[in-house]
Write a structure and sequence with these properties.
Two copies of one chain form a homodimer.
Chain A (H helix, E strand, L loop, with lengths): L2 E4 L3 E7 L2 E8 L1 H9 L5 E7 L5 H9 L2 E8 L5 E7 L6 E7 L19 E4 L4 H10 L5 E5 L2 H6 L1 H8 L4 E5 H8 L4 H8 L6 E5 L5 E5 L2 E5 L13 H16 L4 H18 L6 H5 L2 H15 L11
Parallel strand pairs in A: 1-4, 1-8, 2-6, 4-5, 8-9, 9-10, 10-11
Antiparallel strand pairs in A: 2-3, 6-7, 11-12, 12-13
Helix pairs in contact in A: 1-8, 3-5, 6-7, 8-9, 9-11
Chain lengths: 308, 308
């Protein structure tokens, strides 16, 4: 099935306790599409400036990411500069230069206006709706958002949510969006806002999936070598959506597998700076880690005489 | 198999966003033993003051907790006063009055000195060793500890760890003990300090188990009704050890089931103040939640054509 992603393409400068990197390939659409590319072709809608290195375009194209929707505008590419604390859980934004991304008005190529699946990266909810307006109703519309829009453009975000089937947020965002401190209650509240399904990402603690009465709880892969958490959430969503697009199914067991696939892709991308780990990652490694997560989460039924 | 716990018995005054309670039954040995009692008899070693209500003793005895090792000394019972923030993850200690617990020198009744399993609650590591000195080597010695001892009595704690088979800590404590920010690396370091096995408790995010090359990752039950997190860790350990004592086994699959049993007991105790939820809890409910965790963590193998 065809899969379109709309989001940012950026040059990231990142400091972690383990080192630093200047102007590396980043952005939500970049991480998403590269992650999804392990499962099939992806179409990327975004914007870059004149300074965007052609080698990055070549890399994305080599991964099967179709760049027909990537506009190149006069000016500089979106730049993000951040620093992570020693436990890698806390990020500090040191500088954000939107540059050409400030005037981003996503426009889908005419040939892309009947996508089977659409992922709206974390951009202004007005723009997210403008994308939905451009397409014939896809089989699945998924979206990401963040605290900035939840507090700053709440009404617009609520309008967008009415047109979204599946929402990805982290647990703090879920609590903030629902105004409810308990994450299970928050999830139930969000499922009344439009989406039929919700993925709550919890970083190194895994993810929760809610849809109707269905709940799925996934652990994250216990990683001894976390290095740069940038892009983990978008890589999660990319693996998840790429897998769904490949299978063509959206039933409960498939959604569960997609969550685990997402955690696998996220666990790999944080092993190196930028999305460098994806440059060497093989399908065999993805399969291997998926199988490993099955082994390390397995436990048997409780025996009949297990209690007093 | 016989199971002995040594730890605190306290009267807790707790404020949560949902209400407050004065001088309720608390303490590590109390939570541990009541939780373990769902799986068989437990022997408790601790101390209380003259003010300790006889109704609490009656309750513990009614649960099958043997109080032969509970000393009653002149003075007041250990009192702890705390407040939880709205997300229940952050606890503030408002007041600690050790009272008779300040002079606690655990002494096991002569008939209890050949326990099959021994749990050393979170007390001074000197005292933990004094308990091990009193018994013939049990089949399993497990211990809990905390940041206070890790920083304040590190050498003594390291001596204790050499005599412990299984250690329970939370993730911050694991990092602190090992001086390593990555929890997987921290776990590997701790397994060189004496314990053959380690449980890292992560509260609402579940638990990790490490032993040799074995890793088990357990989710917590996604609870819509968390109310008072006091005693969750000790209830986890009590369910875990009670289940092991019942089965008489310590193989890998049994340890995994014990972890899940522990998360089940912890998930129940936080539903009400103090250990009130254990007053009404039934084996049927424990079984039910265990089965529910199996359902909500299940996912299938990846199909051969799941990747590009």
């Amino acid at each position: 099935m065809s899969l379109v992603v709309v989001g940012s393409v950026a040059l990231d400068s990142v400091e972690t306790p383990f080192g630093k990197r200047e102007a590396a390939l980043g952005g939500s659409a970049t991480y998403f599409s590269t992650s999804a590319s392990f499962f099939g072709p992806v179409r990327l809608v975004g914007v870059v400036g004149e300074d965007f290195p052609v080698e990055h375009e070549r890399f994305l194209a080599s991964r099967g990411v179709d760049l027909l929707g990537l506009a190149r505008h006069k000016g500089e590419t979106f730049q993000w500069k951040g620093r992570y604390e020693y436990d890698l859980n806390t990020a500090h934004t040191l500088d954000t230069r939107l540059n050409v991304f400030a005037d981003f008005r996503p426009e889908l190529p005419p040939a892309w206006r009947e996508p089977d699946m659409l992922f709206l990266g974390n951009i202004d909810p007005d723009l997210q709706r403008s994308v939905v307006d451009q397409v014939r109703r896809p089989r699945l519309v998924a979206a990401d958002t963040m605290n900035f829009w939840i507090s700053g453009k709440r009404q617009s975000l609520l309008e967008t949510l009415k047109r979204v089937d599946l929402l990805f947020v982290n647990d703090a965002e879920a609590r903030q969006l629902a105004g409810e401190s308990n994450v299970v209650k928050a999830a139930r509240a969000i499922l009344t806002m439009g989406p039929q399904a919700l993925v709550v990402k919890r970083g190194e603690h895994g993810a929760l999936y809610f849809s109707g009465n269905e709940v799925f709880a996934a652990v994250a892969y216990p990683l001894p070598s976390a290095f740069d958490p940038t892009g983990a959430g978008d890589s999660f969503a990319g693996g998840f959506m790429g897998y769904l697009a490949r299978t063509g199914r959206q039933d409960g067991p498939t959604m569960r597998k997609a969550i685990v696939v997402g955690t696998v892709l996220a666990s790999f991308v944080v092993e190196e700076f930028s999305l460098d780990r994806f440059r060497t990652l093989t399908p065999h490694e993805i399969r291997g880690r998926y199988a490993e997560i099955r082994r390390l989460t397995h436990f048997d039924e409780l025996e009949p005489d297990g209690l007093a």
